Amino acid sequence: MRFFLLLILTLICFSSIEAHSKLTIDEFFNVTHFQSINLSPNGRYLLVASERPAWDSNSYEQSLWLYETSGRRKQLITNQLF
């Protein structure tokens, strides 16, 4: 199930990219890493933990998001720099 959700999220991300766009060095280093993706037992919510570089503070930003699977709404639960 986790693999299926990760595959769907990956396809959604890549569907918005132009057909022959080239990855720039800035895009390569600004990539967001998805550390954890968990589906609630009833399938209504998706909890996503992500990490991305915060260049202005020379650190990383970790975020925890809650997505509602039916309504496509998202809510930031917590956000911290380390």
Describe the structure using short key phrases.
single chain, 82 residues, alpha+beta
Q: What does it look like?
A:
- The protein is an alpha+beta fold and 82 residues long.
- The protein has one domain.
- It is 23% helix and 44% strand.
- The chain has two helices and four strands.
- A four-stranded antiparallel beta sheet has the order 1-2-3-4, with helices on one face.
- Strand 3 and strand 4 form a beta hairpin.
- The chain is globular, with a radius of gyration of 14 Å.
- The chain starts with a helix and ends with a strand.
- The model has no long low-confidence stretch (mean pLDDT 82).
Which SSEs are present, and which pair or pack?
Blueprint: H1 2-15, H2 25-29, E1 33-39, E2 45-54, E3 59-68, E4 73-81
Report a brief summary of the structure.
This protein is α+β, with helices and mostly antiparallel strands.
Summarize the amount of helix as a percent range.
10-25%
Order of helices and strands: HHEEEE
Low-confidence stretches: none
Strand order of the largest sheet: 1-2-3-4
Task: Estimate the strand proportion.
Answer: 35-45%
Radius of gyration from CA coordinates: 14 Å
Instruction: For the record, give the distance between the C-alpha atoms at the N and C termini, rounded to a whole number.
Output: 31 Å
Task: Profile the largest sheet.
Answer: 4 strands, antiparallel
